[in-house]
Design goal:
Elements: E1 11-14, H1 21-32, E2 35-38, H2 39-47, H3 51-58, H4 60-74, E3 80-83, H5 92-101, E4 103-108, H6 111-114, H7 118-122, H8 133-143, E5 152-155, H9 161-179
Parallel strand pairs: 1-3, 1-4, 2-3, 4-5
Helix pairs in contact: 1-9, 2-4, 3-4
Bound molecules: shikimate-3-phosphate (S3P).
Residues 17-18, 21, 40, 51, 85-87, 125-127 line the site of shikimate-3-phosphate (S3P).
Amino acid sequence: MGKFPLREQSIVLIGFMGVGKTTIGKTVAKKLYRDFIDIDEEIEKRFKMPTKDIFRLHGEKTFRNAEKDIISEICQQRLKVVSLGGGAFLQKEIQEICLNSSIIFYLDLSWDRWKDRIELLMESRPVLQGKTMKEMKQLYEDRKPIYEQHHSRVDTDYHEIEEVADYIAESLKLAWDIYEPTS
Ligand code: S3P
């Protein structure tokens, strides 16, 4: 797959579950006049059921395969803002597809800030269900290195959605002007 010009490449948001990839992604998309795609939502549409039911009825492997297929399709499109599920980057193939086609922003949230959100996430995130706090911290630590494959890291601790989205949109405009000036 040939690369699109930088200005047309899709923007992909990665990071641990519940850091705000979907909300921030929607806001970035508005600022850049682009369509927003949430990969979890696409998977749920395909299976016509929520993620937790896909895990329960079809198993995680089926979910991960669908995740890979859908990301491969979406990454062939340009001018999108895409939010990935927190476990997608566990698959090397997904990392490569995204790194080669799109601009990847890693939304980083510290463990201390993240654990304040656990209550909100438990019900809908099958990978958290039945886990102790210690096990969730371990999952957080284990996942952290996989997000190191990115083009830009954004610290989201103590920042409002609007601020993070502004930062992403502005840094993109700067990069476009530097690397692909229009005149
Ligand atoms: C998962 C994260 C979820 C969703 C699924 C598995 C994970 O997405 O893809 O529940 O393994 O981290 P969010 O990152 O949007 O919560």
